[in-house]
Design a protein that fits this description.
By secondary structure, the chain is of the alpha+beta class. It contains three helices and eight strands, in the order αββββααββββ. The chain has one domain: 3-Layer(aba) Sandwich (Chemotaxis protein chec). The longest helix is centred in the N-terminal third of the chain and has 24 residues.
Length: 160
């Protein structure tokens, strides 16, 4: 059975690839990854966050957290109309981005037989997040043409 550090490493790369490809394709923006780090506190980094649960051989939570500007630009690109205010359509677009990113990463992690929950989107500064108790979440920060974002991932060790 891999160590918890090895599990983290094998989970990080599929999400980095999925974020980069998804934002470049669906939003049309350049994405630059910064150094991954252990998540230090339970609050969201940015005001708009898409949250999705994964279950299977491992269980976990993936959070796509972003600036208001990036959420608006993402929704504008996806809906092909200029969005200036946060509304249900913007939150739906963030949920769809979260779903696509998690789904693309899931495809690269087939051996874990993961199932995805429906995404939830929250709006609020410093909202508290919950990850499985037995894991140490990782934050992968990114800079984009439209503002900062991060993917925060926490998984349990593989069963068996």
């Amino acid at each position: 059975m891999p160590s918890s550090l090895a599990v983290r490493v094998e989970f990080i790369n599929p999400f980095i690839i999925a974020v980069t490809k998804t934002l470049e394709t669906m939003v049309g923006c350049k994405v630059t990854r910064e150094a991954p780090q252990l998540k230090k506190n339970p609050q969201t980094l940015y005001p708009i966050s898409g949250i999705i649960g994964l279950s299977g051989v491992v269980a976990g939570t993936v959070v796509l957290t972003m600036s208001k500007e990036l959420a608006l630009k993402s929704a504008s690109a996806m809906l092909m109309e200029d969005r200036k205010e946060l509304d249900a359509d913007v939150f739906d677009a963030v949920g769809e981005l979260t779903n696509v990113i998690a789904g693309n990463a899931k495809a690269q992690l087939e051996e874990y037989k993961l199932s995805l929950s429906l995404p939830n989107v929250i709006n609020g500064e410093s909202t508290e997040l919950r990850f499985p108790e037995s894991c140490q979440p990782i934050t992968i920060p990114f800079q984009t043409d439209f503002g900062p974002m991060a993917v925060e991932i926490g998984f349990t060790a593989p069963k068996g």
